[in-house]
UniProtKB/TrEMBL annotation:
Keywords: Glycogen biosynthesis, Glycosyltransferase, Transferase. HAMAP family: Glycogen_synth. Residues 37-270 form the Starch synthase catalytic domain. This is Glycogen synthase. One of its GO terms (biological process) is glycogen biosynthetic process. The keyword Transmembrane does not apply. ADP-alpha-D-glucose binds at K49. It catalyses: [(1->4)-alpha-D-glucosyl](n) + ADP-alpha-D-glucose = [(1->4)-alpha-D-glucosyl](n+1) + ADP + H(+). It comes from Microvirga tunisiensis. One of its GO terms (molecular function) is alpha-1,4-glucan glucosyltransferase (UDP-glucose donor) activity. NCBIfam families: glgA, PRK00654.1-2, PRK00654.1-5. Residues 326-466 form the Glycosyl transferase family domain. Pathway: Glycan biosynthesis; glycogen biosynthesis. Synthesizes alpha-1,4-glucan chains using ADP-glucose.
Length: 508
């Protein structure tokens, strides 16, 4: 089965031909040309986001642009086109198989990043998120929508679309862009490709009957290709055909090579790891997460002077219908789904309330968890407050005002919430998994528990409550959390190393 997968030699890495072609196409000048990176994503926080991928897609290209000519490719969703400003159509990408033709637009972010936008209203001009409609149901043509993205990435990398620019390397993100590396290989264009897995649980699996519509060769529908338990998998294709794989924390990179976290792809990922093609690189958070300057906060503060936290805590209590209190304030800022351990947080609420604590919850997700949380708030008026939905200002003030962030995720590839909380002096209480294990030092800048069970979670909460009662210890932990390095510089350096290895292998 998957454990026996062996990569084909002519698939794993690109050849020198593309590099020679690019070199010959450049003018003869003494200034060394910066490498060109096409960052392919299905969401970006500047315009549209459904989760952490949107935040990473906004921050990482900006962290890399001092070293590379980085450009972003994203579908032309309604939300993108309404916010990006002027978009110049610079080319047309032809229809292929069942994938419609589209225009290629070029715009810029407010700070000057080039963004390529796929202009195809029949696929992208819709309400809803990038992946689901307003009722949370997957778009029925998601295979075509994101095959269009992957094929466009391959075209642009080859110099089609924008005839003045081509990519030295593609940086792909999650299943929506996974087919890009495969399209390049099937064309014999071995341009280096990096695939970052942000969450292995989302794989883009479709019926095998869709192969011909997507231009996938029948010969590729096998274990050494795109086949995944009888289905076509965009993520499997991206993992198999890409030059290198990264994921968003060192611990998660190890976890996904084991059956309990590998989502059926652990065998392939073990092969990647054994070949030195799998790295874990922790995400950072952007510079806007600064409690001394954040415009959403009602009172600024810093690691040296945290007095402003009280004003933010009182604001949260008022907005969430909680009583004024000198007790500990716990926050939950999360998608309300099973992965996030929301059921554990609900079950632990009685312990928190009985010890004089309060809980503020913001998020949306599975209706059963939304209903259970609202019932919990009804049972504990003044102690539990719940808002279904999401508001950026509310979330930031919750991080700033809370003493603790509850994050009992069953698995967490990286997690950003714990870093937001730490930066704002709120101590995360989290399961020791994925990026949580990599960013939280137990008893120093947060609290970790070893298995996702209610008893272990409650033990960690009790340790937090004991710390709250010791003001010197609480102050020391807050300061350690706020002073932990949270930025993108270290992560960007790691990505540079991966890019260099992939390109050097291509030239070998």
């Amino acid at each position: 089965m998957l454990e026996s997968i062996q990569l084909e030699a002519n698939v794993a890495f690109p050849t020198v031909a593309h590099a020679e072609l690019q070199a010959s196409a450049q003018p003869s000048i003494s200034v060394k040309r910066r490498q060109s990176i096409l960052f392919v994503t299905s969401e970006i926080a500047d315009y549209i986001k459904a989760g952490g991928l949107g935040e990473v897609s906004a921050a990482l290209p900006r962290a890399l642009r001092h070293h590379y000519d980085v450009r972003i490719l994203i579908p032309g969703y309604r939300q993108v086109l309404s916010q990006i400003g002027p978009v110049e159509e610079i080319g047309r990408l032809p229809a292929s198989f069942g994938i419609p033709a589209c225009g290629l637009g070029r715009g810029t972010t407010q700070d000057g990043l080039t963004v390529y936008v796929l202009l195809c209203p029949e696929l992208y001009d819709r309400d809803g998120s990038p992946y689901v409609d307003g009722f949370g149901v997957d778009w029925s043509d998601n295979d075509i929508r994101f095959a269009r993205l992957g094929l466009a990435a391959a075209d642009i990398a080859c110099g089609n679309g924008d005839h003045l620019w081509r990519a030295d390397l593609l940086h792909l993100n999650d299943w929506p862009s996974g087919l890009a590396s495969a399209y390049l290989v099937w064309r014999g264009q071995h341009i280096p490709t990096i695939l970052t897995i942000h969450n292995l649980a989302y794989q883009g699996n479709f019926d095998r009957s869709r192969l011909s519509h997507l231009g996938i060769p029948d010969a590729a529908f096998q274990i050494n290709g795109v086949e995944f338990y009888g289905k076509l998998s965009f993520l499997k294709a991206g993992i198999y055909y890409s030059s290198h794989i990264t994921t968003v924390s060192s611990t998660y990179a190890h976890e996904i090579t084991r059956p309990e976290f590998g989502c059926g792809l652990d065998g392939l990922l073990r092969t990647c790891a054994e070949q030195g093609r799998l790295d874990g690189i922790i995400n950072g958070i952007d510079e806007s997460w600064d409690p001394s300057t954040d415009p959403y906060l009602v009172s600024p503060f810093s690691a040296e002077n945290c007095r402003g936290k009280r004003a933010n805590a009182n604001n949260v209590r008022q907005n969430f219908g909680l009583a004024l209190s000198n007790g500990p304030l716990f926050a939950v800022v999360s998608r309300l789904v099973h992965q996030k351990g929301v059921d554990l947080a609900i079950s632990a609420a009685e312990t928190i309330v009985s010890q004089g604590g309060q809980i503020a919850v913001i998020g949306q997700g599975e209706p059963r968890f939304e209903n259970e949380l609202q019932a919990l708030a009804h049972r504990h008026p003044g102690s539990v407050g719940v808002k279904i939905g999401y508001d950026e200002g509310d979330a930031r003030r919750m991080y700033a005002g809370s003493d603790f962030l509850l994050m009992p995720s069953r698995f967490e590839p990286c997690g950003l919430s714990q870093m937001y909380a730490q930066r704002f002096g709120s101590l995360p209480i989290a399961h020791r998994t994925g990026g949580l294990a990599d960013t939280i030092e137990d008893g120093v800048n947060g609290f970790l528990f070893g298995e996702p069970s209610l008893n272990r979670f409650k033990d960690a909460i009790k340790r937090g409550l004991d710390t709250f009662r010791s003001r010197p210890r609480l102050t020391a932990m807050r300061r350690a959390a706020m002073q932990r390095p949270h930025g993108w510089d270290r992560s960007a350096s790691r990505y540079q190393e991966v890019y260099q290895r992939a390109c050097q292998t291509a030239l070998a």
